[in-house]
Write a sequence for this structure.
């Protein structure tokens, strides 16, 4: 009986960490990938003890040259066969376009888009040979619209949505299901928690915790859902996107964003 | 009296070259950027002689990490003030996702998206200082919806669309106008001309001349139009996209654009 693994990038915190736990709960063996300096060894031991699954880990900066290839080679060298690829690693930014440097945007695009596509490219051939395989890409409500004050981040998430949809269609007659999950605001790091505290009660209702997002996403992924809308805001914005003319969409989004 | 320049990337052939000629026709000074080995010098001399404008050129591979910075430094060193930035350089791909290797996809993403964002980021502070300035980004019909068998390419153009619209919104009220042009198939070189011939009558009809696209685009860009749709196909697909369900769209694209 062949042992398969689920590979999760950015697994050391936030949604990635929650997804790792959710997968382990379901008896999946795990390959954890995160930046050097993240406590992957502890995380691996913890998951192995609690859920009795095999867990291995690899430290790498996915924005470095050839990083996706190195991840792939690592799995090959160790004979780790994956049947689920979770492209979770990503970074964000907020504020006017000029707030961040060109170099920061370069890193963001390398992580959110280039690493995602390249990892998918490396693993796809093997995934297609299995009876069943999954790819889950991390999107966001930012995937739905262009967003002033989150210009590059939203565009990268829209890229991920588009790439997921196009690839899914291409792989329609294969055993590989590609999906994207588009959660609304999630408590993933101190910045967001701080942001949450500054909002009023009503707005706070729309924030989600990572375990919820993870559980909902994995469940929907395994059911073969293409675009996973984990929370109310995600569902509402999706409907809005379908109905409203572009002009209004833009105005509303800018206003919602400013308020949120 | 300050001399202003229009900077055009990928200006050695196709739409970029046509745009360079159109700009020179309109008495704009032109800075040409393209890969080494291309006939930039000849184009530069031709424009200078024929239209009596100042031109200069720079050979560079925009897929290199530092290329946008290098171009920026070159304009600073020569004291070229830019008032129009045309992010035209891009590569396309057609075929199943596995047809191309990771480095090819990496180049597409770096050229079509990263270089475009970084150049915009580097030149914006200076563009803001001009009484009137423009950024023109190259989209495509592929900007309208995700395309199977063109997953990375169409997603990159959707990224450009999202980026441009959000940037336009953020820069509202400033002197910088951001536009995106979404042309259909253009006869840009021998290769595309042959491919147009091969795909039949409808395909030949839909192909436009680069000079037409350039003229149409510049006129509307200078008028401040956000989304520029040269040609019949671009307009038709844009409106049809709104009404046709996603699933049918995808199948139509596969049929029309990708012949096995």
């Amino acid at each position: 009986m062949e042992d398969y693994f689920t590979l999760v990038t950015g697994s050391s915190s936030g949604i990635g960490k929650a997804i790792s736990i959710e997968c382990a709960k379901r008896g999946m063996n795990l390959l954890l990938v995160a930046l050097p300096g993240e406590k992957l060894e502890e995380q691996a031991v913890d998951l192995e003890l609690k859920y009795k699954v095999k867990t291995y880990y690899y430290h790498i900066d996915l924005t470095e040259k050839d990083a996706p290839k190195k991840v792939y080679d690592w799995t090959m060298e160790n004979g780790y066969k994956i049947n689920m690829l979770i492209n979770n690693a990503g970074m964000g930014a907020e504020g006017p376009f000029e707030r961040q440097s060109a170099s920061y945007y370069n890193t963001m695009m390398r992580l959110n888009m280039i690493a995602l596509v390249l990892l998918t490219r490396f693993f796809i051939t093997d995934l297609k040979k299995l009876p069943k395989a999954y790819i889950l890409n991390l999107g966001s409500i930012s995937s739905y619209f262009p967003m002033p004050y989150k210009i590059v981040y939203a565009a990268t998430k829209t890229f991920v949505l588009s790439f997921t949809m196009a690839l899914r269609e291409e792989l329609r007659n294969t055993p590989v299901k590609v999906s994207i999950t588009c959660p609304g605001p999630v408590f993933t790091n101190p910045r967001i928690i701080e942001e949450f505290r500054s909002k009023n009660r009503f707005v706070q209702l729309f924030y989600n915790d990572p375990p919820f997002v993870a559980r909902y996403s994995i469940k929907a992924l395994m059911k073969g859902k293409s675009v996973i809308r984990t929370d109310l805001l995600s569902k509402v914005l999706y409907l809005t996107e379908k109905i409203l003319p572009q002009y209004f969409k833009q105005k509303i989004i800018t206003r919602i964003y400013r308020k949120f | 009296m300050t001399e202003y320049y229009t900077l055009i990337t990928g200006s050695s052939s196709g739409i970029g070259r046509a745009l360079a000629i159109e700009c020179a026709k309109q008495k704009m000074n032109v800075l040409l950027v393209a890969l080494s080995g291309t006939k930039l010098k000849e184009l530069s001399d031709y424009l200078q002689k024929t239209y009596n404008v100042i031109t200069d050129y720079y050979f560079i591979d925009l897929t290199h990490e530092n290329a946008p910075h290098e171009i920026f430094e070159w304009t600073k060193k020569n004291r070229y003030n830019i008032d129009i930035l045309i992010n035209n350089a891009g590569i396309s791909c057609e075929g199943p996702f596995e047809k191309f290797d990771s480095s090819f996809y990496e180049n597409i993403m770096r050229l079509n998206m990263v270089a475009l964002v970084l150049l915009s980021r580097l030149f914006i502070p200076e563009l803001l200082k001009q009484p009137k300035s423009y950024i023109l980004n190259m989209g495509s019909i592929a900007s309208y919806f995700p395309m199977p068998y063109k997953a990375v390419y169409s997603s990159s153009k959707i990224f450009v669309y999202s980026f441009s619209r959000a940037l336009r919104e953020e820069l509202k009220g400033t002197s910088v106008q951001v536009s995106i042009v979404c042309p259909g198939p253009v006869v840009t070189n021998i290769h595309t001309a042959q491919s147009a011939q091969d795909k039949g009558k409808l395909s030949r009809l839909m192909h436009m001349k680069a000079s037409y696209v350039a003229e149409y685009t510049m006129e509307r860009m200078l008028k401040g139009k956000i989304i520029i749709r040269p040609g019949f196909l671009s307009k038709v697909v844009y409106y049809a996209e709104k009404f046709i369900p996603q699933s049918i769209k995808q199948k139509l694209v596969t049929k029309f654009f990708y012949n096995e």
